[in-house]
Design a protein that fits this description.
Length: 692
């Protein structure tokens, strides 16, 4: 199939200084929890994107000096020549597939506590960093600035040695470049005060970088053009735009972001595709250089429209490139329906934030390219002619059936309900979660193309039915249900409930139950569900109190950068939030609350209570089958395996991964440790272990 003519514009080459990008697809810098400690994992992940058709594949933020240490987030470093090979490894992987390799260099001053290096963080003025670490950055004097420019220059030279084609000057969010540019810069010397002064630091970074790399390498910039904080911050209509004007032709390309980070990478619950357009649209009028912008672009029509209307020259992308590294190639081949669209959940960010390789809800191969040899598009052919019955068409069952089908197995997918998609089909009807339905839609569209995968909705099977059907392998992916007794993290035993009290679960709400008001939502889950249910009930016109044992509602969503958005939305909806409280007792028209850190007892009126605590695996079928191995053998069933929430309730990403993993591993010899590890090789010590 050929691409549609209306997308031709996306495949026009773009000049970036001395280089030509093969098309308009630009993977913006993104951390991944792999960094310098997992260089092979990282190189394979970037290589796959180059293979998938991205014209430019960037690194994440790369530290140029120990004063910029992100650990435990394992980002890349380029501190001396010994750091070159790990980066060269990645540049080679990118080049192997014809893409340009970009590297982002700078210092993200206000992000770091420098926990490993114990260097004092640097900043334009003395201030604590954004993290709550009890440290403070010190104000750089002019000698420090000169020294810093030397580090930048040396790192840029090393980047060229490592084989990079593009050096990207980092002036985003927490970076020193941006901290100098921001109106929050309180310096009084020639690096503070007027915009011309505040832009000086970035100008010098661009100049020394250019000097270091020579004429054959492109020098680009990633800069915040609007802080989205009204009069207190930089705005593109004001100084943000003026700053671009002052630096307009210095870089070979402008990659512009509207910050802060939590705004740049908003989840689909808080921003649709192309949400940055209004801010980015002004940039092309301020420079002749190509402009890159982001917007969680998954629709080729939106992308083409951005180019045609002169908003952008290149389509910047991080999350859509994670969810589908082959997005450009699929558009090019006219395979639009095969695009695995990002759902905007930010699970990818949660990995990086915890110092572990990023995972993706839609793409279970993310981070597994090297250590498990999983390719996002290719999979080994089936290892036998065995047939497989998958029960349950939620995210685990759908992915399992899809990937088994891709391997060539004959698969029957039986779903008890009429609707397919399991939890995603239900959750995507909750406020803000519509895009989560893409987890189902992508898989159903793929399954539809596989004649040997048959889907049977409305087919509830018991153990006897399964044995009678006589498949070679049985996969139980029957999901989980929310617990009705309140047990979870905070309560090992059920919460006492007075007879007649209205106690509901998220399943009831998703099934259409309308609780009476005022309602109390007890959130001992700490992810999205408690807040979403509160939002839904407010939308239904109920007064809502959200009670949580944690310090904040939806506390885990720090990891997905959503917490501020969630708290703002709940505040706007006038949801009362009571942190540090457990539910001591649920009565007919009130709840008794126990403060976790005080002797205080209180109550709240409650006509209904929604318990968002833990989930119970729906594993009855699995246990019924496993209980009788002889009957299984007689039926010719070689294995019964439970996967996803039915095995252990978790994220949608974990369920998709479990389904994919089963499919990959069927009829395959899996080593005891099922992945390669990147380990330190200890050489004999060169000398005494203590110095001085
Ligand atoms: C997991 C993750 C890590 C990121 N790390 C970086 C980074 O190291 N440097 C940077 O400039 N931006 C980083 N970003 C921001 C992205 O480059 C991009 O601006 C943002 O995700 C919005 O684009 P998207 O909607 O295409 O995802 C990161 C984003 C994500 C999701
Ligand atoms: S984890 Fe979620 S937000 Fe991140 S790339 Fe995957 S689908 Fe998109």
């Amino acid at each position: 199939m050929a691409r549609e003519a209306r997308y031709d514009i996306l495949f026009e080459p773009v000049r970036i200084g001395p280089l030509e990008a093969r098309n308009r697809f630009y993977q913006t810098p993104h951390c991944n929890g792999m960094g310098g400690v997992r260089p092979n994992t990282l190189a394979a992940m970037r290589g796959v994107k180059a293979e998938g058709g991205w014209a430019v594949v960037n690194t994440e933020h790369v530290s140029i000096h120990p004063t910029d240490d992100l650990l435990p987030e394992p980002d890349l470093v380029l501190w001396d020549d010994d750091d070159i090979p790990a980066l060269a490894n990645m540049a080679d992987a990118i080049h192997e597939h014809g893409a340009l390799a970009g590297i982002q260099l700078g210092n993200i001053a206000y992000y770091n506590a420098n926990r490993m290096t114990r260097e004092v963080p640097l900043a334009p003025t003395s201030r604590p960093p954004d993290s709550l670490d009890p440290v403070q950055a010190r104000a750089m004097d002019k000698a420090d600035i000169r020294t810093f420019m030397g580090w930048q220059k040396a790192a840029a030279r090393r980047a060229v040695q490592a084989g990079f084609d593009i050096v990207n000057v980092d002036a985003k969010w927490y970076s020193l470049g941006f901290q100098f540019l921001s109106p929050k810069n309180r310096r009084t010397d020639e690096y503070g005060g007027s915009l011309a002064n505040r832009v000086r630091f970035i100008r010098e970074m661009l100049e020394v970088t250019r000097e270091a790399v020579g004429p054959d390498i492109a020098v680009t910039i990633r800069m915040v053009i609007d802080e989205l904080m009204g009069t207190g911050g930089l705005s593109v209509e004001g100084e943000g735009g003026e700053a671009i004007g002052l630096l307009a032709e210095l870089p070979d390309l402008w990659d512009v972001v509207a910050g802060p980070f939590r705004h740049d990478a908003r989840t689909s619950r808080f921003a649709p595709e192309a949400a940055h357009e209004a801010h980015v649209a002004l940039v092309k009028g301020l420079t002749t250089k190509p402009v890159v912008g982001v917007g969680r672009f998954t629709s080729p029509d939106t992308m083409a429209s951005q180019i045609e209307r002169g908003i952008l020259d290149m389509i910047g992308s991080t999350r859509p490139s994670i969810a589908d590294p082959f997005l450009p190639r699929k558009i090019e081949a006219g395979r639009i329906e095969d695009i695995r669209e990002c759902i905007g959940c930010n699970i990818c960010l949660s990995g990086q934030h915890s110092g572990t390789p990023s995972r993706c809800t839609q793409n279970p191969t993310m981070g597994e390219e090297w250590r498990k040899g999983w390719h996002p598009e290719r999979i080994a052919a089936k290892g036998s002619d065995d047939t497989v019955l998958v029960t349950g068409a939620g995210p685990a069952g759908l992915e399992c059936a899809r990937a088994l089908g891709q391997r060539g197995y004959e698969v029957h997918l039986a779903e008890a309900g009429k609707a397919l998609g399991g939890r995603v089909a239900r959750e995507c009807r909750l406020p803000g979660l519509a895009e989560w339905g893409r987890v189902r839609d992508y898989r159903l569209a793929q399954i539809e193309k596989l004649a040997h995968v048959r889907v049977y909705p409305g087919s509830r099977l018991d153990a006897e039915d399964v044995r009678e059907l006589g498949f070679g392998h049985v996969v139980v992916a029957t999901g989980a249900t929310w617990r009705r007794d309140g047990t979870g993290r905070c309560n090992i035993d059920p919460i006492p409930v007075e007879a007649g009290a209205a106690v509901l679960t998220p399943d009831d709400v998703m099934d259409g139950a309308v609780p009476g008001g005022p309602a109390v939502v007890f959130d001992d889950d700490h992810y999205y569900m408690g807040g979403v249910i509160a939002e839904k009930l407010r939308g239904d016109g109920l007064a809502v109190t959200l009670v949580t044992p944690a310090a904040e509602a939806a506390a885990w969503t720090h990891a997905t950068l959503e917490i501020d958005h969630i708290l703002s939305r709940l505040a706007a909806l006038e949801v009362e939030i009571l942190p540090y409280r457990n539910l001591a007792h649920i009565r007919k028209d009130e709840v008794a609350l126990a403060h976790l850190h005080a002797e205080q007892q209180e109550s709240r009126p409650a006509a209904s209570v929604v318990l968002v605590t833990a989930r119970a695996p729906s594993d009855a079928l699995y246990h019924a089958l496993s209980a009788d191995p002889d009957a299984l053998a007689t039926a010719g069933i070689k294995s019964v395996t439970r996967i996803g929430d039915c095995h252990a309730p978790g994220t949608i990403a974990a369920a998709v991964y479990a389904g994919h993993r089963y499919a990959r591993e069927l009829d395959t010899a899996v080593p005891t440790i099922p992945f390669l590890r990147e380990r330190l090789v200890l050489h004999p010590s060169p000398g005494p272990t203590t110095r001085g």
